[in-house]
Design brief:
With about 350 residues, the protein is of the alpha/beta class. It has two domains: about 90 residues, 5' to 3' exonuclease, C-terminal subdomain (DNA polymerase, domain 1); about 230 residues, Rossmann fold (3-Layer(aba) Sandwich). Helices cover about 40% and strands about 25% of the residues. Strand 2 and strand 3 form a beta hairpin. Helix 7 packs across helix 8 and helix 10 packs parallel to helix 12. It is globular, with a radius of gyration of 23 Å. The structure holds guanosine-5'-triphosphate and magnesium ion (MG). Guanosine-5'-triphosphate binds next to helix 7 and strand 15.
């Protein structure tokens, strides 16, 4: 087989000349190499670059954060060259330190999606923040799915262009419920439903894949995704990994999933709203004997955590248990057909 590489077949300036794009030809295929790109990696020819691209490693960042094993598999390189390119990518990457001023500017782009309950919004510092993960855990019927539905509607109330992505693992997404809540919020139910993209996840791998694809979906269809719901985050993981022996494997997968979601929150400036079940821990004698599934991995990756429980006279009580900048506290509200009602 003859392989030939034309190193500088053509170069073009794009976007006002800011970025130099070089197209290189490998066999009959043209591969776009940008400044930031794989073409610079030592020992990576076009064939390997193409393989890496096909496997989803399309930027320096993706190489820098990859493990040696993953890259070996994707590129067909041995472990030593794989190590070399990872090190090169790490050294040559702008690792993304930002000054406090830049971060303060970025905070100004944060949007707060209201829930309709004043008490709950106040608890959350004015609503559910974009750019981070909010985890709601609680027993069955405590209102997790109701909050998820309501946020899908309210995201559009404050921004008609907003799109919500709903990853449904328990088959509990109900378009009829959205219709009711949209009417309650004074919105056109059809339009609201149009802007909610629902995907049913059949197992944990599928769920992880769907989360990874949200960025692509937004880019391809030019969607302004301000909310991503995963309802429920842990049900599949819990069902598929049973017993002590499989716990570390489960936690590893869950960890990867949480990182995908964290990245999604950051790159899309979306609020990632996760629901989580609780398990009862009978060995706890004082306080509430319920704990969220997923342990530290889910807890640490979530920016805000709320614990939901049923209160008096059919109300629901949300307790803020973890937040970087808000005091802990509680809010009570009723779930009504049209939305939430304060007490
Ligand atoms: P699991 O998914 O089973 O863990 O529970 P969850 O926390 O997701 O519960 P969910 O949010 O589905 O809450 C269900 C409860 O919301 C029901 O028991 C009702 O009390 C209430 N609810 C749901 N729909 C309506 C409605 O249209 N009108 C009123 N008034 N209440 C509703
Ligand atoms: Mg639910």
């Amino acid at each position: 087989m003859t392989r030939y590489e034309i190193e500088h077949a053509t170069s073009v300036f794009t976007g006002g000349g800011h970025e130099l794009l070089t197209f290189k030809q490998h066999n009959t295929r043209w591969i776009k190499i940008t400044n930031e790109d794989l073409g610079k990696l030592p020992g990576v020819g076009l064939a390997t670059a193409a393989k890496l691209k096909d496997a989803g490693y399309d930027s320096m960042m993706s190489i820098a954060v990859a493990s040696i094993g993953e890259l070996e598999e994707a590129s067909g390189l041995g472990s030593s060259p794989a190590r070399k390119i990872i090190n090169f990518a790490r050294e040559n990457l702008n690792m993304g330190f930002q000054s406090g001023i830049e971060l303060l500017e970025k905070r100004k782009t944060v949007v707060r999606i209201p829930s309709g309950s004043e008490a709950l919004d106040k608890l959350m510092g004015g609503g559910f923040e974009t750019g981070c993960i909010v985890e709601a855990y609680g027993e069955f019927g405590s209102g997790k799915t109701q909050i998820a539905h309501l946020l899908c509607v309210m995201a559009q109330k404050i921004d008609p262009e907003a799109v919500a992505v709903y990853i449904d693992t328990e088959n509990t997404f109900r378009p009829e419920r959205i219709e009711q809540l949209a009417k309650g919020a004074g919105l056109d139910p059809k339009k609201v439903l149009q802007n909610i993209k629902v995907a049913r996840a059949y197992n944990s791998d599928h769920q992880m894949l769907l989360a990874e694809k949200v960025g692509d979906l937004a880019k391809k269809e030019n969607l302004k995704v301000t909310l991503v719901v995963v309802d429920s985050l842990t049900a599949h993981f819990r069902a598929e990994f049973i017993g002590r022996g499989t716990l570390s494997e489960r936690q590893q997968k869950l960890n990867r999933h949480m990182h995908t979601l964290l990245k999604l929150a950051d790159t899309q400036n979306a609020c990632v709203f996760l629901t989580n079940q609780v398990m009862s821990t009978p060995d706890v004698f004082f306080g509430d004997p319920t704990r969220a599934i997923g342990g530290h991995i889910v807890a640490h990756a979530s920016t805000f955590r709320i614990y939901l429980r049923k209160g008096k006279k059919g109300s629901r009580v949300a307790k803020l248990v973890d937040s970087p900048n808000l005091p802990d506290g509680e809010a009570a509200f009723y779930v009504r057909t049209e939305g939430f009602e304060d007490i």
